[in-house]
Amino acid sequence: MKNKLIAGLSLLMFSSASLADSTRINIGEFSSGSLKGWESKSFSGTTQYTIAAEGGRKVLKASTNAAASGLGRKMRIDLNKTPFLNWSWKVDKPLPPLKEATKAGDDYAARVYVIIDGGVFIWKTRALNYVWSSTPSKGNKWNNAFAPKNARMLSVRDSRDGPGQWFSEKQNIAADFKNLYGFQPRFIDGVAIMTDADNSRGSTAATYGDIFFTAR
User: Fold this and answer.
1) What CATH code is carried by the domain that includes residue 31?
2) What 8-state DSSP symbol labels residue 7?
3) Residue 93: which domain range?
4) Which of 8, 37, 59, 191 has the fewest CB atoms within 10 Å distance of its CB?
């Protein structure tokens, strides 16, 4: 159950790296065929994550059937130096329209999220989720139904963005934390992805390209 989401966030992160002096910090180098540094965490069953060739490059494929597990990588990022999170993704099999602000509808074909780790003070953990919504809700923000104080959701793609189409994203993490939480952090502690359908008992699939931070 994803009411264990916040407790699981710290468990997603096993290895640590500090690369704040770089102008580009690679988080997910899926195009190289590597999942080095990424660890899995199951919340309810298992989402399948596999490196596959598509369109002349390697990508990360995710598919799930009434299950939810994520991949996470711990890496301390200095947002004063590299505040922009960049990634590409597409939905291959969308979910039906869900009431995503409810526990029964808290599923997403694709999500990328960043984490401030509260450590032993688990109530201080904060997660900012960039989601591909199953409804026409691009730009909307809401509190996670299972962890309203610790996880905030922001729809950057929605059901009007058709399946099978690649989209590239760039989000200012510091600015988005200010917008959704009311404070602007100096550091984040990790990045995770998840394709899940455990609450709605459905099935969905998505594909992720490389994930990295940049100065601009």
Assistant:
1) 2.60.120
2) H
3) 2-214
4) 8
